[in-house]
Design a protein that fits this description.
By secondary structure, this protein is of the alpha/beta class. The chain is built from 17 helices and 21 strands. A 7-stranded mixed beta sheet has the order 7-6-15-17-18-14-20, with helices on both faces. Strands 9-2-1-13-21 form a 5-stranded parallel beta sheet, with helices on one face.
């Protein structure tokens, strides 16, 4: 039994089905996918992605790649360039899958920056495979960690640990002379990290280097096609997906998860295991009553930190975005902020509870990446930014965080004004727009608590052995036969399926151990009789 038909739940279900298990996935929403869904809009002939859109982690993930989803209808598309960061002076930093072209362009922005970028990629070439192996398995990653240590040696390992803990602002000061380093800073801000946060360099470097090696691909036809391929594969192996029937309780008897009870009143038995692809805060004390859980866990969950809320706008444009800077038009993803200091101001405003005056924008040019997303000559565009979970003020006006109609429209206008700084005339191209507030994200997917997209903060104090609470960073829970399979578990957010795959493998091991214990007990009884 799997609770939740997002990517982690569906990957887990496929792994279990491959092992010969009979699998049922229960989903609260009327369709599967969680944050990986798409649909028509915001104008006729346009396709928009409800939440996630680009998938570098999926392209690199062994959990997803091993499923061979191309055999079930999934096709990846790539924009001509991976990422661009336009500058106020009309120039732009551009990340291409071509390392030489990227380095040459960065040299034009700052003397020696191309060589600095090459050094970062050389480090990735040495460590990337071991790092990904370590990232996507339960903690501690013994074998991949040993390979990583052997590759680096003692001195190299210490230097890499320092590099991994650097704030991205410090890395740019040490390695770069020009604004090309904004590519790294922007990648760090995909999560709830700031340019001054420890380990923001590691996160930014990881995403940027994945762009070189794998690109940031999109599913042809919309993000929902990734979900559709996962569902088709599961059904081909006898699995089932039940939508619009939320699980409201995990039934625990004698310390073991034995069934789930749905909103319709059905009790569905779980002969081997229950995998919960739900937020940790919804599982513990929600689906599972506190009476079945250690008292310490309740206190630990009280300290659980969510990532920031998200505000998103989708547009249907008559023409592609009129970027002032050359090189931006061909990028699938665009980061919009005037400078590193502006990005720090934005992050400081959010962290102090203020709606940002000049929001950092993560922008997706979807037709550029996948021409079937809108009619020829048009652009399906989106942008999202982070906002405080609890708004205490507004650095750019009078917004309160109620996100009523007036506030939704006002903040969407502010986002458009930020785009206009770098693409004058963009607003005149708008056919229609769709706004998604933090509350609407949560209403569409209860895992997106308060509009948080990463299942909890990406900061180091809630990663590895600290995710979701201090422990071993593993999917096992205090309840036998119950496993945490969501991004609240290690390795956390992004669409890579590793949280689900790790939970499925733990369930397989746990079921084998349980069967062996039952067999041994039966043998003892037989001998005694």
């Amino acid at each position: 039994m799997v609770v939740g038909a997002g990517p982690n739940g569906l990957v887990a279900a496929n792994v279990l089905a491959d092992a010969g298990w009979s699998v049922v996935v229960c989903e609260e929403q009327p369709e599967p996918g969680g944050a990986v869904r798409s649909g028509p809009g915001p104008a006729e002939g346009f396709v928009y992605d409800h939440c996630s859109a680009f998938y570098p982690m999926a392209a690199a993930s062994r959990a997803i790649q091993s499923l061979q989803l191309q055999d079930y209808g999934l096709s990846w598309r790539h924009a001509p360039d991976v990422l661009a960061h336009p500058l106020p002076d009309g120039r732009a930093a551009v990340l291409s899958r071509d390392l030489d072209r990227t380095a040459a362009a960065l040299d034009d922005l700052g003397a020696g920056d191309g060589a600095a970028w090459r050094r970062l990629y050389q480090l990735w070439q040495r460590l990337g495979p071991h790092l990904l192996d370590a990232l996507f398995v339960p903690f501690p990653p013994v074998r991949s960690g040993l390979r990583l240590a052997a590759t680096l040696g003692p001195t190299g390992l210490l230097r890499f640990m320092r590099f991994g803990l650097l704030p991205v602002r410090k890395l740019t000061d040490e390695e770069f002379t020009g604004p090309g380093s904004l590519l790294l800073a922007g990648c760090a801000l995909h999560a709830d990290l700031t340019p001054e946060t420890a380990a923001s360099s590691l996160y930014g470097w990881l995403l940027a280097m994945l762009g070189h090696q794998y690109g940031w691909p999109v599913p042809e036809g919309g993000s929902g096609q990734l979900t559709a391929a996962l569902v088709r594969r599961l059904k081909a192996r006898g699995g089932a997906v039940r939508c619009a029937d939320a699980v409201r309780q995990v039934v625990v008897r004698r310390g073991r998860a034995v069934a789930v009870r749905t909103e319709s009143g059905d009790e569905i038995p779980a002969r081997r295991a229950v995998l919960a692809a739900t937020a940790a805060t919804q599982l513990y004390g929600g689906l599972v009553s506190w009476q079945h859980l250690p008292a310490r866990l309740r206190d630990d969950l009280r300290r659980f930190q969510w990532d920031y809320s998200t505000f998103k706008v989708d547009w249907a444009l008559r023409q592609p975005v009129p970027w002032q800077a050359g090189g931006v038009a061909g990028a699938g993803t665009v980061h919009v902020a005037g400078s590193l200091d502006e990005m720090s101001d934005y992050a400081a405003q959010i962290s102090t509870g203020r709606v940002p005056a000049h929001p950092f924008l993560l922008v997706g040019q979807m037709t550029t990446a996948d021409p079937c997303r809108s009619p020829e000559g048009t652009e399906s565009l989106w942008a999202y930014t982070h906002v405080p979970r609890q708004v205490r003020g507004d650095a750019g006006g009078d917004l309160t965080g109620s996100w009523d109609e007036r506030e939704r429209e006002a903040f969407a206008d502010r986002i458009e004004q930020q785009l206009e700084r770098f693409a004058p005339g963009m607003r005149q191209l708008v056919i229609a727009r769709r706004i998604t507030t933090p509350k609407q994200f949560q209403a569409s997917n209860t895992n997106l608590v308060g509009g948080a997209l990463n299942g909890g903060t990406t900061a180091v104090h809630q990663q590895l052995v600290f995710r979701p609470t201090p422990g071993l960073g593993r999917p096992e829970t205090p309840i036998a036969g119950l496993y945490l399979a969501s991004s609240s578990a290690h390795p956390g957010g992004a669409v890579h399926g590793a949280c689900g795959a790790n939970a499925a493998r733990a369930a397989l091991r746990g079921a084998r151990a349980h069967a062996q214990r039952l067999g041994a007990a039966a043998a003892r009884l037989a001998i005694g009789s």
